[in-house]
Every structure is written in structure tokens, then in C-alpha cells.
Amino acid sequence: MNTMDTTCVNAIRVLAADAIEKANSGHPGLPLGAAPIAYELWARHMKHNPKNAHWENRDRFILSGGHGSMLLYSLLHLYGYGLTLEDLQSFRQEGSVTPGHPEYGHTVGVEATTGPLGAGMAMAVGMAMAEAHLAAVFNTEDYPIVDHYTFVLGGDGCLMEGISSEAFSLAGTLGLGKLIVLYDSNHISIEGDTELAFTENVQQRLAAFGFQTLTVEDGNDLQAVGAAIETAKADLAHPSFITVKTEIGYGCPAKQGKAAAHGSPLGADNVLALKKNLSWPEPDKSFVVPSAVYEHYHTLGQQGEQKEAQWQTLFAAYSQAYPEKRQLWDRMHRPVAAETLWKDEEFWSYADKPQATRSLSGVMINRLKDRVPQLLGGSADLAPSNKTYMEGAGDFSARNYAGRNLHFGVRELAMGGIVNGLALHGGVRPYAGTFFVFSDYMKPMIRLAALMKLPTTYVLTHDSIGVGEDGPTHEPIEQLAMLRAMPNVCVFRPADATETAAAWYLAVTGTQTPMALVLTRQNVPQLQGSSKEAVKGAYILEEAANAQPEAVLIASGSEVAPAVEAKRLLAAKNIQVRVVSMPSMELFEQQDEAYREKVLPTHIRARIAVEAGSDFGWGKYVGLDGATVTISHFGASAPAETLFTKFGFTAEHIAATVQAVIQKNQ
């Protein structure tokens, strides 16, 4: 390591230590130990341009160990991505662009929101899949316009979490040769030495997954780190896993190699000792970086500018040589034309016969296949049940990266993370399917998608006790409430074909919100009054005679049809009710007060919600004077029709509940 390299590595360490000390909060251990890895990667092996953090053909870097965020912030500052010294001094403070864990969309140069350990590993797999797919679709022999790597850095915690094993198992199967994992191996976790709970041979595990495995014995040896990265880049048939042996808290005499370096500031005396140990100039001052260091990083950044300029020249020539491919490129990299899809009569058409909304969703997916060429997705080994397969679109595999049907295997948690990575990469519009009850497995990754404002789509079928004979392990009860409780997630439970089309219209045209499409296994009738107004979240499906209802029935999904039948039964008794279909509470809440009042007038206090799930969340619509026809216990194993009758989801029971509520309010 030459003198300038040493000083540049130490600049990362010192800035991280100073920022964490000023904030009196943070994780210095990873930045101090892994600084040489990051410096070598960014300086000599990673293609990136500080002047354009969104260059399409840049290499991606994900810090999976997001608690070590000051490593990334120091790099972004030194390279000139826009983070100022004042930003570093505001680390972890209110309103800063340097939050405790990196946040996508909040800080320029952050490729993914990380923090939940292992999540970055799965997102990196998704990014590598997106690169492979786009390369297969667009590259020609003379014009490799999609040609970049995905690098992810994480530690022992990331490798302990099950999501990384799920994701890496698939990555190995797919032969994602442009995925390179850098393992910061320091054998320390919060509770102490990893001998306490993590003694496996990680290299052998990754080799079994199909990775090329490499080891760097000394994490401070830049030449060895660089040689390993180049060896990894050369193997395009296998993803690569590089174990880099480091010492947590390197350079701090009192804490180097100890768990105490992980998650708390070093302390003023130890920061001073660190700087003196690293021979840092003016060790008694904070946030001091020699001008020569900034100049060196600026020079490195200019190399990235030149690489993008070369790519732009290549891309311009490609656009002239292959104008049709360029048109497809533009189409796949811009939002879906919402107005065009809204007016597309064929897209909204349907056969007037009972069908499961999962089947109707399958029809929509295949209609969207050609309308939305960036659509890419699949299921956790459930495509025949989820109806998520795009006919004639090919299977994405190590032999055919151009395929658009993804096979995630039985890996729901990793599937959620991978879909996030696909969306983050750009150029593709991903969806993922499983049984609704198994959204529990996906929940942490759906939460990250919501936090990052990613327009991912989840096809969640078998949505209720309608699962039937499979029994309570497979029958969702609380999952609707769970997803509805999550900020920035749109849960949409359609009642028929028109509402299912509305769900997919929203899914492919949205830009900042994950969509959860909650779909039936059993057939439902096509409702005469259903309309595109479903995109508003709730609408009047059937009005009472003379538009003067005594009560309002609110239902979603498969329960809308029995609610309509209950209205008929009540009308025969001269009781007039309005039926409101509410496929999405979230969308309804986004409407203006006048519309919400029109649909659910405040003066009508007799309100009854009908849904084959928990009553949690319905109180805001039915109030103290209303009631719910819901389910507050687990299901049972029996035919669906038997269970719907047993648990009260019949027109007769709904009508009786309406009568009881009206009587109570008189």
C-alpha cells in the first residue's frame, strides 16, 4: 500500500470515527475494519460516476451491513457525490441526509435502504438478475450496452440471517456471474466472538450454492483484495464470494478486534488514540482531511466520468444501429402510459362467468405481457396456483436470461428482497406471488419496499377461509390487517373481473407504492355494478331505492357478492341498504372529503362491514353504532362452502346483522 492509498483509506476511518463521536451514536467497527475493502473496490474495480449517480450502466454497490453507514457516507463525501462535510457532521441528526442506516431516495449514491441484516444480500441478487435480463434483451455482439457488476458488502450477521442463504442458493442456480459478495469476516458480533453461535464453514456453504469462493487473509492488503476482485470478475459462469479477513475497529488500540467496537462511539480519548495510531495530521481536531486526499479522490472520480462518456458514445452508436431496440429501451425505462391503459377496452374486457380473482389476475398478467414489456415476475414455486405465468415469455434461467418468468423456488423471504433489487435496478417492473398466508414470510421485505417507495407488486392468492380443505395453516385471518397497518402499502382485494383489472392498472402505473393484490381461490360472480371507480378504493356498487339507505353494507373481495344478495333479502322486507365495495382502504383514504362523504355519509350510522378476515381496522368505518361480519379465530379444514356457511358469511346472516344494527340505532 503506497502512502497516498494509506492516507485515503485512513480518511474513511477518521471521518467515520469523528461523525459517530459527534453524534454520540453509531457503529464504528465496520467502517474501521472494512475501509481498505471499500477503498480498493471503489478506486480500482468499480465503474461509477460521482457526477451522475443514476448512470444506467454503473456498477452497483450495496452496503448490506447498513449499520456501518459511515463507511458509505465517507466514500460519497470523498468522491464528491454531493455529501458535504457538514452533512457528515449531522450524522444521525434530524433532517440530515446521513441517517443512521442508508436510505434509498434520501441520499444520493445510496442504491438500497439497508439495515435489516441480510436484506442487502437478497437485493443484490435481484440487481444482478436485472442486469442479466437487460443484457440478454438488449446487447449485441458489437454493443454491450448493459455490462456492469453488482457488489455487496456484509458481515457475519448478514451471513447468519436465513435470507442470504435463500438468495444465494438461487443466485448459484442462476449462475449470476456478475454478482460479487464481499464478506467482511471479523468473527465479532454484538454479543462477542462468533464462536458463540456461528461456527460453520461459510466458504463451503457458498461453494455448495454454486459460488466461486476466494479468501483474502489480510483485509489491509489492497493488492490482495484487488486481485481477488479481478479473479471474481473474470468468472462469468458463477457468482463470487470473497472472504476478507479483517479486524473490527481496526486502528483503535483499546477496541480493535473487540465487540465493544461494534455499536457505540469509540469515546473522545479513543478517537484521539486512533488518529495518532494512524499517524493522522492534527489528531486533536475533528473532520480534518488533507487537501491532497480530496484531490486524489477527485482524480479517481474523473475516471468514472470518462467511463460514462465512453458508454454514452457507445450507446449513441447503438441507438443508430438498432433504432427498434432503442425504442424498446426507452419504453422499458419510463413509466407505463396510464392514460393509454385506462382507455384500452380490450384490457378491461371480461367473460361474464364466475371466476376466481386469482384466475382473472392471470388473464390480466398475460394481457399486460405485451403492453408492459418490462413486466417480469413469478412465484415461490406456486405459479400454477397463483396464475402468475406469462405464456410464451420464456423462463429466466442460467440458459435464458431473456426469459420473463422468474422461478424463485420455495423462498418467500428472499423473493421479497430480490424483487426489491429488481425494482431498484430499473428497466424492469417486477411482481412476486405466493399464498396470502405466507405474506408473513415476506413482510420484512415488503416493509423495505414501502420505505423505499418501490412500485413492486405482490400477487397474494388463496386469500381467506376459502382455501378450504388445506385448513387453518393455509387460511389467512390477520394478514389483511397486518399489511393494512404498514405505511405506504396499497392493499387491494378485488371482488370481480373489473376490480381485478383496476388492481393491475394501479399496480403497473403506480410509481411510489407497493401493491398487494389479495385474490380468491374460489370463483366469484361478475358484479353488474362494478366499475373502474374501484381505483378510488371504495365506491357505491348498488344504491338503495330512492337513494335513501337505512344502512350501508361495506364489503371487499368475495364477500361483496353475498352482501349484494343480502341487500335483495332486505329489500323484500322493505329495508333499503346501500352496498359499497371497498377493495382498498388506503386508496379510499386518499380521496377528498367530499367523495368519502358521498360514499359513506356521516349521518348513516348503521354500517356493517363484511370481510372474511379479522375485524381489526374496520372500526373506523363502522363506528360504535355499527357491526362487522368478520372472523376472529383461525379457520378449519373443510370445503370452502361449508366454512363460509359455518362462520356466517352468508346473505342470510349478513341481512340479519343489518336488521340488528338498524334496530339498535332506532
UniProtKB/TrEMBL annotation:
<dbReference type="InterPro" id="IPR005478">
    <property type="entry name" value="Transketolase_bac-like"/>
</dbReference>
<keyword id="KW-0786">Thiamine pyrophosphate</keyword>
<dbReference type="Pfam" id="PF22613">
    <property type="entry name" value="Transketolase_C_1"/>
</dbReference>
<keyword id="KW-0808">Transferase</keyword>
<dbReference type="InterPro" id="IPR033247">
    <property type="entry name" value="Transketolase_fam"/>
</dbReference>
<keyword id="KW-0460">Magnesium</keyword>
<dbReference type="InterPro" id="IPR005474">
    <property type="entry name" value="Transketolase_N"/>
</dbReference>
<comment type="similarity">
    <text>Belongs to the transketolase family.</text>
</comment>
<dbReference type="InterPro" id="IPR020826">
    <property type="entry name" value="Transketolase_BS"/>
</dbReference>
<dbReference type="Pfam" id="PF00456">
    <property type="entry name" value="Transketolase_N"/>
</dbReference>
<feature type="domain" description="Transketolase-like pyrimidine-binding">
    <location>
        <begin position="355"/>
        <end position="526"/>
    </location>
</feature>
<dbReference type="Pfam" id="PF02779">
    <property type="entry name" value="Transket_pyr"/>
</dbReference>
<dbReference type="InterPro" id="IPR029061">
    <property type="entry name" value="THDP-binding"/>
</dbReference>
<comment type="subunit">
    <text>Homodimer.</text>
</comment>
<dbReference type="InterPro" id="IPR005475">
    <property type="entry name" value="Transketolase-like_Pyr-bd"/>
</dbReference>
<dbReference type="InterPro" id="IPR055152">
    <property type="entry name" value="Transketolase-like_C_2"/>
</dbReference>
<dbReference type="InterPro" id="IPR049557">
    <property type="entry name" value="Transketolase_CS"/>
</dbReference>
<dbReference type="GO" id="GO:0004802">
    <property type="term" value="F:transketolase activity"/>
</dbReference>
<keyword id="KW-0479">Metal-binding</keyword>
<dbReference type="InterPro" id="IPR009014">
    <property type="entry name" value="Transketo_C/PFOR_II"/>
</dbReference>
<comment type="function">
    <text>Catalyzes the transfer of a two-carbon ketol group from a ketose donor to an aldose acceptor, via a covalent intermediate with the cofactor thiamine pyrophosphate.</text>
</comment>
<protein>
    <recommendedName>
        <fullName>Transketolase</fullName>
        <ecNumber>2.2.1.1</ecNumber>
    </recommendedName>
</protein>
<keyword id="KW-0106">Calcium</keyword>
